[in-house]
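Budget justification, computational time. The allocation requested in the original proposal was used primarily to generate structure tokens for proteins on the priority list. As evidence of use, we reproduce two of the resulting records. The first is shown immediately below.
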Amino acid sequence: MICVSIGRTRHKMMIAEHRALADKGAQLVELRLDYLSRPPDLVRLLNERPTPCVVTCRRDVDRGRWRGSEAQRQALLRAAIAAGVEYIDLEDDVAGEIPRYGNTNRIISHHDFAETPEDLAEIHKRLSALDPDIIKIATMANSPSDCVRMLKLVASARVPTVGFCMGELGTASRVLCGKYGSPFTYAGFSNERELAPGQFSYDEMKNVYRFDEINSETKVFGVLGDPIAHSFSPLVHNAAYAHEKMNCVYLPFRVPKDALMTTLEDFEWLDIRGYSVTIPHKVAVIAKADHFDGPVQEIGAANTLFRDSQRSWCASNTDMDAALTSLRTAMEERQFADSSLQGKRVLLLGAGGAARAIGLGVVRRGAALSITSRTSEKTAELASKLGCQKIQWENRGSVFCDILINCTPVGMHPNVDESPFPMHWLRDNMLVFDTVYNPENTMLLKQAREHGCRTVSGVEMFVNQAAAQFERFIGQAAPRDVMREALRRGISPVKFWIE
């Protein structure tokens, strides 16, 4: 079950949002009374309520907005209990002062906005002695491994426990707590009004992560990166699982560069079946693999880590074939006289993980490759590895090429007005391939079309590489049309769902 938190300054808006959530299928709503600008009117809020409610009123020390006295706040909580609200949230330091009454369920809560303390078990034991129906523990994640400690606590708890980590490092635990026995999780009304750090919206929790379908048998996959909040991989992979009616969930895992190996080791407890891998981990993740699928070692980067039939970790790189398929399709559709890369002059912008894979692919197919990036050392290292020409970044416009491929993040949302290759350097009939997929129509591609160039967006490459990952994770063909539609829906400025 998903508990949706509402925090509005006006009673009218809080009631309207409660009704809207009920219409969308919400089963439990948290009313944050501390957000109201006027004294809360419980009769108005609770009479004819369309769903069961949790009444919560947070103090400043709990990152809340209550400005009245503590005596007034506790009187308000008692009044909500007397009114028969389904759940009341009581902080652990006041729970002993507010006795059980009627049928209201007591949520005894503990929040730590600084860290996930080492003594989680002791905190849980203390909360268990305060007559709870449900225990809630929310702590700040300072490392991805904090999530594992929290989820172990949830899994072992004898009292029903809602336990998760806050912050971007803890977002996945808000979903995974359902796998380990949490009676519900929390979500926000929309992405624009996050009431707690790292909180998903109700729409995301329900329709992307399908929280209500998660159970102890759910298989877990995810994407490793830093940053990771911008990634559309969860949207695309979860859409595929939903379409195929699979008990699987795919999550974003923000993992700092220096924490990769420790995190992967600690995540073994979560029994994660496969990872997509993005910046900055594509090179380092190779060290985790027991086996290799394809030319990973030759590329020097992997974007996929999955369990093979022996449960060993296997590294793969789906970027190369995805990019080459996108290029070949584009050349065929645009009626190139020769859709092969043999003899084509290719200028590659960037020297990261994707560039390593694509560069090897075009060289293997006989193209004359030149590489440039903003980091001259990385450019030189990759050019030497591939046996191709290196170009200084400031001289990239002087290179005559048939195909221009952008593997840098320049032009990616939100910096949509930037281009890695000024328009006056473009040449007629050049094929321009931008691996950036958000937005699909980047500034580079807009200017290329204005100049009469043929273009390829990053959407097809993204879908191709994600589909190949799906097939390695699951062992069956991916629903590519479903994945493509999910991506386009996600990057569209006009959302196809109500947030």
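The second record produced under the same allocation is shown here.
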Amino acid sequence: MKQHSSPIIIKREKAQVLEKVSLNSTSYNESWIQDLCFTNPTLLPAEELEPTFGGMLPICRELSTPSGYADLIYINEYGFITIGECKLWRNSEARRKVVGQILDYAKDLAKWDYSKFEEECLKAAKCSEKSLFGIIQKFYPDVEEAAFIDNVQRNLSKGRFLLLIIGDGIRENMEDMVNYIHRNGNLNFTLGLIELPVFKNPEGEELIVTPRILAKTKEIERVIYRIADDGVPEKVNSDIQELVSQTISDVVFFERLQKNVGVDKLEELKRFIASLSSQLNIIAKLGRGKRLSLNLKSGDDELNFASIQESGEVWFYGIVNKTEVLGNKQIGINYLKELADAVKGRFFDSTKEWNWSVKRNNAYINVVEYLAIQEKWTEIIAKTLNEVSRLDE
């Protein structure tokens, strides 16, 4: 179980421990936590849990479902829905019930279509806005209505939700949580436990809130099947299965990438990443940001050998800067130059060093072309790793 000490304020070389506010009082209770989280959605580290749920907007409180009233509903411009449930941990009953409760809300929403979801949200919001899209458009004016509705409908039908249990001092039994998760495997949710300790500023009236992610549901092992040419289901090779993501954000990234490179090239990319992982301990790590990307990083998370975009373009974030920090900037430059020669591109260094890359005709090159030289690419990565490891000698 994670333990956290109280934060301190250091002023004129003197340290003062902040006093924790009890959330069991009349002033600070579950309703107060709901208000705090609803009016300050950035307080909740949704993007840390699932990048594709970032930029969420508060839609309504106390959404009526067949299983009860969901405390908080958020949505972002891409139609990804977050459900928040606020609980104070005064008794064991609350601890036992809250996980099942929020999963029941998710199952209820997964049975709704867009019209039902919009109707219930607007009813709970009690606002003058006549459409859910109207609320979103005020903050994201470039969003297309048809695309937004399609995205919300897709996420509802697939049960793609971020579920946040928010409390003052979570002590949930993780075994119970795992049991709930396995019984609800038809939903593609991510469940996060967030603690919201609140402290008093000793020199003023302000309150200091320090959100903490205490736990996130781990990937659930699943056997992946595909339909062969003869129509018979066949099990996907185990090394490929490891690259088939279980988080919502990863699944969404691969869906978007597949639209741009095709099914066959996507499967080839997954095999290539699996090969890099087994040979060179390369990690495929989803990047954050408004657009998702997949970074191919060294095992120690230091070097980024490629950043594959949803479009299929391959960018390179900071490898020159990182090799400079490690002791030899030229190693990163040589990596990009050798890769440029392999794909018949050009080492592009006319921007800030962080964005130095490989381009052709001033445009990034698609990952499909890199797959055509994947053996050479593997050699260049191996050579770069070896040169970096020798810096410590």
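A brief technical remark on that second record: The two ends are 39 Å apart (CA to CA).
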